Amino acid sequence: MAEKFLAGDNVCYLLGDNIFFGHDLVKIMAQARTEIENEGGAYIFGYYVKDPERFGVVEFDQEGKVVSLEEKPLRPKSNFTVGMYFYDQEVVEIAKRITPSKRGELEITSVKRRIPKARETQGETFRPGLCLV
After folding, report:
1. Which long-range contacts (CB under 8 A, 24 or more apart) does 32-39 make?
2. pLDDT digits (tens, 9 = 90+) for 69-82
3. Which residues lie below 8 Å from residue 46, measured CB to CB, with a gap of 6+?
4. Mind listing the domains of the chain with CATH numbers?
5. Structure pTM?
6. For residue range 86-118, what is the model confidence (pLDDT) as tens digits?
Protein backbone atom coordinates (compact mmCIF):
# COMPACT_ATOMS: atom_id res chain seq x y z
CA MET A 1 0.00 0.00 0.00
CA ALA A 2 2.82 2.44 0.82
CA GLU A 3 5.17 1.41 -1.99
CA LYS A 4 4.65 4.56 -4.10
CA PHE A 5 4.92 6.81 -1.06
CA LEU A 6 8.17 5.19 0.09
CA ALA A 7 9.71 5.47 -3.38
CA GLY A 8 12.59 3.13 -2.50
CA ASP A 9 13.38 4.72 0.88
CA ASN A 10 13.97 2.91 4.15
CA VAL A 11 11.07 2.63 6.60
CA CYS A 12 10.37 3.48 10.23
CA TYR A 13 7.26 1.57 11.25
CA LEU A 14 5.42 2.61 14.40
CA LEU A 15 2.42 0.72 15.65
CA GLY A 16 -0.60 3.00 15.51
CA ASP A 17 -1.74 2.54 19.09
CA ASN A 18 1.57 3.64 20.64
CA ILE A 19 2.85 7.03 21.73
CA PHE A 20 6.62 7.46 22.10
CA PHE A 21 8.30 10.15 24.16
CA GLY A 22 11.34 10.73 26.32
CA HIS A 23 14.90 11.91 26.60
CA ASP A 24 17.14 11.08 23.62
CA LEU A 25 14.30 9.54 21.59
CA VAL A 26 15.25 11.46 18.46
CA LYS A 27 18.91 10.53 18.98
CA ILE A 28 18.30 6.79 19.25
CA MET A 29 15.94 6.87 16.26
CA ALA A 30 18.65 8.64 14.24
CA GLN A 31 21.18 5.98 15.28
CA ALA A 32 18.84 3.20 14.14
CA ARG A 33 18.26 5.01 10.85
CA THR A 34 22.01 5.31 10.29
CA GLU A 35 22.46 1.61 11.08
CA ILE A 36 19.86 0.69 8.44
CA GLU A 37 21.34 3.07 5.88
CA ASN A 38 24.83 1.61 6.39
CA GLU A 39 24.09 -2.06 7.02
CA GLY A 40 20.58 -2.73 5.68
CA GLY A 41 18.26 -5.26 7.28
CA ALA A 42 16.14 -4.34 10.28
CA TYR A 43 16.42 -2.65 13.66
CA ILE A 44 13.79 -3.32 16.32
CA PHE A 45 13.13 -1.60 19.64
CA GLY A 46 11.67 -3.55 22.55
CA TYR A 47 9.80 -2.24 25.55
CA TYR A 48 9.38 -4.11 28.86
CA VAL A 49 5.81 -5.12 29.71
CA LYS A 50 4.31 -7.19 32.52
CA ASP A 51 1.86 -9.00 30.23
CA PRO A 52 3.79 -9.91 27.07
CA GLU A 53 1.24 -12.51 25.93
CA ARG A 54 -0.92 -9.58 24.77
CA PHE A 55 1.69 -8.29 22.30
CA GLY A 56 4.25 -9.09 19.67
CA VAL A 57 7.25 -10.24 21.73
CA VAL A 58 10.93 -9.89 20.85
CA GLU A 59 13.78 -11.92 22.33
CA PHE A 60 17.33 -10.50 22.20
CA ASP A 61 20.69 -12.22 22.64
CA GLN A 62 23.58 -10.77 24.67
CA GLU A 63 24.82 -8.68 21.70
CA GLY A 64 21.42 -7.10 21.01
CA LYS A 65 20.59 -9.25 18.01
CA VAL A 66 17.01 -10.39 17.64
CA VAL A 67 16.72 -14.12 18.32
CA SER A 68 12.97 -14.53 17.94
CA LEU A 69 9.80 -12.59 17.33
CA GLU A 70 6.36 -13.98 18.17
CA GLU A 71 2.86 -12.56 17.89
CA LYS A 72 0.85 -12.87 21.13
CA PRO A 73 2.53 -16.07 22.35
CA LEU A 74 0.96 -18.25 25.04
CA ARG A 75 4.43 -18.73 26.61
CA PRO A 76 6.48 -15.60 25.83
CA LYS A 77 10.27 -15.97 25.57
CA SER A 78 10.76 -12.48 27.03
CA ASN A 79 8.87 -9.57 28.53
CA PHE A 80 9.77 -7.19 25.69
CA THR A 81 7.09 -6.06 23.28
CA VAL A 82 7.97 -4.46 19.98
CA GLY A 83 6.90 -0.90 19.40
CA MET A 84 9.17 0.49 16.73
CA TYR A 85 10.77 -1.07 13.65
CA PHE A 86 13.29 0.26 11.15
CA TYR A 87 13.61 -1.60 7.84
CA ASP A 88 15.60 -1.10 4.68
CA GLN A 89 13.77 -0.66 1.36
CA GLU A 90 13.60 -4.42 0.81
CA VAL A 91 10.74 -4.57 3.31
CA VAL A 92 8.27 -3.56 0.59
CA GLU A 93 9.00 -6.71 -1.43
CA ILE A 94 8.95 -8.83 1.72
CA ALA A 95 5.59 -7.40 2.78
CA LYS A 96 4.07 -8.25 -0.60
CA ARG A 97 4.75 -11.96 0.06
CA ILE A 98 3.16 -12.33 3.50
CA THR A 99 -0.16 -14.06 3.94
CA PRO A 100 -2.76 -13.71 6.71
CA SER A 101 -1.94 -15.39 10.01
CA LYS A 102 -4.16 -17.94 11.77
CA ARG A 103 -5.90 -14.91 13.28
CA GLY A 104 -6.68 -13.71 9.75
CA GLU A 105 -4.38 -10.68 9.99
CA LEU A 106 -1.27 -9.51 8.16
CA GLU A 107 1.26 -9.51 11.00
CA ILE A 108 4.39 -7.35 11.15
CA THR A 109 6.12 -10.32 12.81
CA SER A 110 5.65 -12.21 9.52
CA VAL A 111 7.69 -9.53 7.78
CA LYS A 112 10.57 -9.89 10.24
CA ARG A 113 10.60 -13.67 9.86
CA ARG A 114 11.14 -13.32 6.10
CA ILE A 115 14.27 -11.18 6.41
CA PRO A 116 17.15 -13.41 5.26
CA LYS A 117 19.26 -14.80 8.09
CA ALA A 118 22.37 -13.34 6.47
CA ARG A 119 20.97 -9.88 7.19
CA GLU A 120 20.78 -10.06 10.96
CA THR A 121 18.21 -7.98 12.76
CA GLN A 122 19.66 -5.60 15.31
CA GLY A 123 17.70 -4.42 18.29
CA GLU A 124 17.70 -2.80 21.66
CA THR A 125 15.39 -2.08 24.54
CA PHE A 126 14.15 1.37 25.37
CA ARG A 127 16.36 2.90 28.03
CA PRO A 128 15.09 4.40 31.30
CA GLY A 129 13.56 7.78 30.56
CA LEU A 130 11.90 6.63 27.34
CA CYS A 131 8.27 5.64 27.33
CA LEU A 132 5.89 3.73 25.13
CA VAL A 133 2.26 4.32 26.00
Report:
1. 32/86, 32/122, 33/86, 35/86, 35/122, 36/10, 36/86, 36/87, 36/88, 37/10, 39/122
2. 888 899 999 998 88
3. 58, 60, 78, 80, 81, 82, 83, 123, 124, 125, 126
4. 3-132 (3.90.550.10)
5. 0.75
6. 888 888 888 888 888 888 888 777 776 666 554
